[in-house]
Design brief:
alpha+beta, 5-stranded mixed sheet, binds 2-oxoglutaric acid, binds fe (ii) ion, JmjC_dom, metal ion binding, oxidoreductase, EC 1.14.11.42, iron
Length: 321
């Protein structure tokens, strides 16, 4: 595939655990799984049912006057609403009660009971709704990390980011466009932590982000009932085309002790990676003690070492681009 190409994420029908484990997961590429048994949520869930079953418990949500949430200029705010009111506002186009404007958008990423200590688990925070969902068990039980309720207004777009665990994104209500980028495209994505600074991927500012045009788009439109497999480290940018309800399940793909124990979101870099990045920061501070020509010389030598020892080793991509 050439730089900047666009490709459709492969669609698989009626996938069993065996097929997923033996044929799909090892490719480390995203895949849409259609026809997985997700339980009665598919026929039951709509705004009215969710409001009645979810009740008035408070939820912390993103409220945004613009559909494209911008983590750089923080054009959204965290607000607390009763769940039923949040559902009502999220499902309607114009609001009589609002924080910013009558057509503001909302996004819920459910959290654990104590977000600093607990991971999100739909079975604990929303047991009345969780009973309607069969979470596909395509991993071993001990690999389970979290199950996250995600509810979105029509049109809202979540910035491009990566998570550190394998993800099964179960789309229950509404269509959703997902654009994914391979971990090997990281040089083209202008990262700020786990997020890409290229917020408008459809008309990017190529003066500021010239390399972005080299990134390959892996695209799909999820229908209600689809499950998107997002392998760990794959970037994803998500636009809800309609009122959307999804549950995503993070699964630990690496040995369990590789992950940061304080991570409740599934987005802290694995312990060894975080340590390596810290050591790099220290190395750069040390280099800064030298005159510029020495900094460049030793900087080049460091790059060559990484190229030879990390990138030269065949650890780039297991399959295709
Ligand atoms: O579908 C969404 O709302 C966001 C999905 C996402 O970022 C995730 O599941 O990690
Ligand atoms: Fe994500």
């Amino acid at each position: 595939m050439a730089a900047g190409d666009r490709t459709q994420v492969r669609l698989h029908n009626g996938v069993t655990k065996e097929v997923f484990v033996n044929e799909i997961r090892p490719l480390r590429r995203p895949a849409v799984l259609r026809g997985v048994d997700l339980g009665p949520c598919l026929s039951r869930w709509d705004a009215e049912y969710l409001r009645a079953a979810g009740g008035t418990r408070p939820v912390r949500v993103h409220a945004s006057p613009s559909p494209r949430m911008d983590f750089i200029h923080k054009n959204f705010a965290y607000k607390t609403l009763p769940f039923d009111e949040f559902i009502q506002r999220t499902a309607e186009e114009k609001h009589s009660k609002f924080f910013f404007c009558e057509n503001e958008k909302y996004y819920l990423r459910a959290l654990g009971n104590d977000p600093r200590k607990d991971v999100a688990d739909i079975r604990k925070q929303f047991p009345e709704l969780a009973k309607d969902v069969i979470l596909p068990e395509f991993y071993e039980e001990e690999q389970f990390f979290s199950s996250v309720f995600r509810i979105s207004s029509p049109g809202i777009q979540l910035w491009t980011h990566y998570d550190v665990m394998d993800n099964m994104l179960i789309q229950v209500v509404g269509r959703k466009r997902v654009v994914l980028f391979s971990p090997s495209d990281v040089p083209f994505l202008y990262l700020n932590g786990d997020k890409s600074e290229v917020l408008d991927i459809d008309s990017p500012d190529l003066k500021t982000f010239p390399e972005f045009s080299k990134a390959t788009w892996h695209e799909c439109v999820l229908e209600a009932g689809d499950v998107l497999f997002i392998p760990a480290l794959w970037f994803h940018n998500v636009t809800s085309l309609e009122f959307g309800v999804a549950v995503n399940v993070f699964w630990r793909h690496l040995p369990l002790d590789a992950y940061d124990r304080t991570d409740t979101y599934g987005n802290k870099d694995p312990v060894a990676a975080a340590r390596a990045m810290q050591v790099l920061e220290r190395a750069l501070k040390s280099l800064a003690e030298l005159p510029p020509d020495y900094q460049r010389f030793y900087g080049q030598r460091m790059i060559l070492t990484v190229q030879r020892k990390v990138l030269g080793r065949n650890c780039s991509e297991p399959a295709g681009k």
